[in-house]
Amino acid sequence: MKESRAYRTFRIINSLIMAFVVICTLYPFLYLIAQSFSSEAAVYAGKVTIFPIEFTTKTYEIILSKPDFFRYYGNTILYSIVGTVISVAGTAILAYPLSKEKLRLNKFFTPFVLFTMYFGGGLIPNYILVAKTLHMRDTIWAVVIPGAISAYYVILMKTFFASLPGELEEAATVDGLTAYGIFAKITLPLSKPILATMVLFNMVGIWNNWFGPSLYLQSKEKWPVALYLRQIIDSAISTTEMGASSDIATQIAATVKSSAMVLTALPIICIYPFVQKYFVQGMMIGSVKG
């Protein structure tokens, strides 16, 4: 079937717009990579675009030569795995009953979940709760528990669960499955797209989190890599610690910061291609159906 002129024009314009969006999305990251492999002087002079100038790996060597770097990376992996498991499990357990219209108190509990999207306790009350009341200061739980359940993720997963055919549960009930059996053997296997989406969201959030650990973790050996790399950037900016002039410190800080960002983002970038198909499908179904 021959394309009409209007459709061909639309396809060309759409392709141009998508190409522009892709370029705008990729350019900052390509620039960051090029900057991390360029010399300090070239970066400071503004000569770097998307290709390294005066190629060097000095800043990567500086960061990777730190004796505790891989310990902090291991801490981040541990926090990300434990936090993601707790968050996804808790979100699914809360979202599943809320997705059932027949649940007697469904309309009573849902507004309480929505309420937390707009109002929070604030920084100081949260700190008192986590550090003083629950005694989780300087533990892994202070990193993974406070943000474990997100109201937005609960609503997203609730919408996905509600989109699943009710006939499947009815058939499973006839076959003798309990509510827990239906959830574990029917609902969860059919929910791989939304579960993969939740895994990606939570892992990225925990991986990049440095503010919470900076509040609750006193022991430096328990730091995540994001907090450690932030310290490296601050040290590079400090002329006292570097023993250099302000201009030289600024040059070094720019390249160290770029290298730190690349190292921090690299694992997530490597994981994303494997969950992308589930991510797109989960977002589409979870946000549209219901």
Automatic annotation (TrEMBL):
CC terms in the record's Gene Ontology section: plasma membrane
Assigned keywords, A-Z: Cell membrane, Membrane, Transmembrane, Transmembrane helix, Transport
Gene3D superfamilies with a match to the protein in the record: MetI-like
Primary localisation category: membrane
Biological process (GO), any one: transmembrane transport
Its membrane topology: Multi-pass membrane protein
One Pfam family, short name: BPD_transp_1
Transmembrane segments: 12-34, 77-96, 108-128, 140-156, 252-275
Record flagged with keyword Membrane: yes
Compartments, as annotated in UniProt: Cell membrane
InterPro entries (alphabetical): MetI-like, MetI-like_sf
Keyword Nucleotidyltransferase among record annotations: no
Family: Belongs to the binding-protein-dependent transport system permease family.
PANTHER family for the chain: ABC TRANSPORTER PERMEASE PROTEIN MG189-RELATED-RELATED, POLYGALACTURONAN_RHAMNOGALACTURONAN TRANSPORT SYSTEM PERMEASE PROTEIN YTCP
Protein name as annotated: Sugar ABC transporter permease
Species of the source: Anaerocolumna cellulosilytica
